[in-house]
Write a structure and sequence with these properties.
With about 270 residues, this protein is of the alpha/beta class. Helices cover about 40% and strands about 25% of the residues. It contains ten helices and ten strands. It has helices spanning about 50-55, 80-85, 105-115, 120-135, 150-160, 180-195, 205-215, 230-235, 240-245, 255-270, and strands spanning about 10-20, 25-35, 40-45, 65-70, 70-75, 90, 165-170, 200-205, 215-220, 225-230. The strands form two sheets. Strands 6-7-8-3-9-10 form a six-stranded mixed beta sheet, sandwiched between helices. A hairpin with a 2-residue loop joins strand 9 and strand 10 (about 225-230). Helix 3 (about 105-115) crosses helix 4, helix 3 (about 105-115) packs parallel to helix 5 (about 150-160) and helix 4 packs across helix 5.
Amino acid sequence: MTTETDPTPAIEIRGLKKAFGAKVVLDQLDLRVESGESLVILGGSGSGKSTLLRCMIGLERPDAGSVLLHGVDLFTASREEASKLRQRIGVAFQGGALFGSMTVAENVDLPLAEFTDLPASTRRIVARIKLSLVGLEDAMDRLPSELSGGMQKRAAFARAMALDPSILFCDEPSAGLDPVTAAELDQLLIRLRDVFGVTLVVVTHELDSAFAIADRLAIMRDGRFVLTGPVDEVRASQDPWVRRFLDRVPETSRNDDKRYRKLIRQWETEP
């Protein structure tokens, strides 16, 4: 789902490059994400998708290229501009990243306390509203350790939405969850997108979640985009590597099959 209220893309990446020593992790990436769009970034381990996400939220400085959020370069912006940008994005980290010594409501209150002048009583009301959006209003005063994995993920979404961000970044939102809970989180993300018009960028390796959430998919390999496009277009791709990835066929399987058959023939022919 996309909106046409703002011609400036929510996110624009130009010539992004990042290396760690001699290892090039991101290799001249270009990407555009429209406002209100849901983009899912897929890729195997070591493909560069997590580093890309860290660059997109400002936790990792690229060696070259730029990341523009609503037309403002994240890495050349002034301190004031950068602060305003941070208030317009929300991030739900893979492990939830909730502070264990704080209640769920206090965790949601953190960005409100940092970026607003609202009194504590008003911030608590806002925290209650955000938690009600994710079905956790009754868990406001519980500690993260008292919640299930799925509930912790939902609490992380509530905190990420505390400042009504225009862009929500999610890192492996369904990792480690059972299929039913993962599907519930997928539906929650879709609801947040549809109700609030938030732009979603989700990094995952879960194909079922990717197909459920995405308007568009971007598949990464070795620091580059192998294919980007609408879900139906990507699923219909006949690119050999994309097909192996989507069908979950290990790249070494064919060579392994040949080696196993050779060993079996040798065993059968030995006296």
